[in-house]
From TrEMBL:
Residues 1-20 form the signal peptide. Keywords: Signal. This is Lipoprotein. The lineage of its organism: Bacteria, Pseudomonadati, Pseudomonadota, Alphaproteobacteria, Sphingomonadales.
C-alpha cells in the first residue's frame, strides 16, 4: 500500500498527538506532576496556599515572597505577602517574640521596618491555619483560613533585597 503525502502527514499528526505511554510500568499515559514549577527553585505564595490547603501536614520547601505588610500580636511578628493579611493568596511568616528580640547582625533595625518591600526566601513548612473571629476574647464560631510558615530560627530567612512591587 502506498501513502500519499496527505496521508503521511495525517499519520504523523495522529502519532504525535497520542499520549505518551509509561512503558516501564506497562500501563497508561504519563501524567505530568503540576504541583511544583520545575523551572523555579522556590514555591510562590499562590502555590504555597494551594499546596498547603491540599495537605493536612502542610508543604515543606523554600518559599519566595515580597513583604507587603506586617503586624505584631502578643509579641509575635507577622510578615505578609499581601497588603491584606486576610487575602486568600496571602502567606504569613510567623516569627515568635523570642526570635525578634535575639540580636542578629542582618536585622539591626526592627525586622518589620528592615524587610518591608524586600523579597525573602524562607525555608520551612507552609500550613493551612484556622483563624477564629473573636468577640470579647471568645470565639464567635466564625473563622477563616490563612497559610502560615513558622520561623524557628532567623537563619531560615534569606533577604534578597528590595524589589519594585509591579507584580
Amino acid at each position: 500500500m502506498t501513502l500519499n503525502r496527505t496521508s503521511m502527514l495525517l499519520c504523523a499528526l495522529l502519532v504525535g498527538c497520542a499520549p505518551a505511554l509509561d512503558r516501564s510500568a506497562g500501563v497508561g499515559p504519563i501524567t505530568p506532576d503540576y504541583t511544583v514549577n520545575v523551572a523555579s527553585p522556590w514555591i510562590t505564595p499562590e502555590q504555597a496556599v494551594m499546596l498547603a490547603a491540599a495537605s493536612p501536614d502542610g508543604i515543606r520547601g523554600t518559599f519566595r515572597l515580597v513583604v507587603r505588610a506586617s503586624g505584631r500580636q502578643s509579641g509575635n511578628l507577622y510578615l505578609n505577602s499581601e497588603q491584606d493579611y486576610r487575602d486568600p493568596r496571602n502567606i504569613t511568616l510567623v516569627i515568635p517574640a523570642a526570635l525578634t528580640s535575639q540580636p542578629d547582625d542582618r536585622f539591626r533595625k526592627p525586622v518589620e521596618t528592615r524587610l518591608s518591600g524586600h523579597a525573602l526566601l524562607v525555608v520551612g513548612t507552609a500550613r493551612k491555619t484556622r483563624i477564629n473571629f473573636l468577640a470579647g476574647g471568645r470565639p464567635t464560631g466564625k473563622y477563616y483560613f490563612q497559610t502560615h510558615v513558622v520561623v524557628h530560627d532567623m537563619r531560615q530567612l534569606t533577604d534578597l533585597g528590595p524589589v519594585s512591587d509591579d507584580r
